[in-house]
Write a structure and sequence with these properties.
about 375 residues; Helix Hairpins; 7 strands; transferase; phosphoprotein; EC 2.7.13.3; kinase; two-component regulatory system
Amino acid sequence: MIPLHAFVEVAAYAASAALLTGAVGVALLYALRGRSIAILLTVVSAATVLATVTGIIAITMRMLITDHDRSVTLTVTAIAGLVGLGASLLLGHRLIAASRSLLDAVRRAGDSGRFVPPEKTLPAELNELATELSTAYERLEAAHARERALETSRRELVAWVSHDLRTPLAGLRAMAEALEDEVVTDAETVHRYHSQIRAEADRLAAMVDDLFELSRIHAGALRLSRQRVGLGELVSEAVAGTEPLARAKGVRLSGLAQGVLPVEVDAAELGRALRNLVVNAIRHTPQDGGVEIIAGVEHGMACVTVSDACGGIPDEDLPRLFDVAFRGETARTPGGGAGLGLAIARGIVEAHAGEIGVSNAGEGCRFVVRLPLGA
């Protein structure tokens, strides 16, 4: 057995040689930190081999062994080091090829807007990176699609609002000029003009209010004052508020709440969304038709359905029905305004972490609002 003092001496020489070589290797790695992975791996392998060889030389110089034994030991160590160095070079080459293929895929994605992962097999880390890049580009493409759709909606909104503002303003100007120039003097006509001016002013005020509400929704500035209320109460208020319009139109209006349905919502905002849906249904239901509002529970969520008898909507129009200013063949907006009613309803429902949808059912359409059910 080797004596303790000899073992300590051997360990000290080996450690000193390894530390010295390792320090040189670390310094080289720091100096070359921005270079290729293959170069860094070569430095690591060379430092390992030199540390081993230096340690063996330092040890054999202190040990009484023959030159033959020393040569054999150094030869074996050198061969093993060269094999390790070759393996490092091969690994570095593979990493470089994989990273370059990934870089080429990213560059192609910059031109086409779509990321296609490399066909060759990548190391696990690079493969994970490629998967994340693919997901990121898909999200980016979806965001661009939403941005394009929003920009299209904004252009449509400007066009429709310009048209809808121009018409009542032209009427207001004509009636005001007629009154100012005393073209109209009889009391009955003057009274009728005053009534029309008031009605058009109210219509313009409602349109401006809708625009302001929609701008708050799109800007994320809609502040909800939540409180615990019964969904049945909101349905009853929506029915009561739209009953005069239904009666004037000759439309049957009914509302029903199935059981106690507590929800944590902003009563004023959600009430506005429900009124928009009900008024929209009444506007597009012919005389003697019916509009039905039912509140219940479906799949653990509070649910409100508004069914009308409008005759249905073309299937290609259904996905865009809640878009700003979208009208399709038949306007689905209260009062024939700027196409904001359903867009506002969707914004309010989604601000409550709810969902809104529409489908053709029976003699007309069925709008469905789903909200988280309160405790």
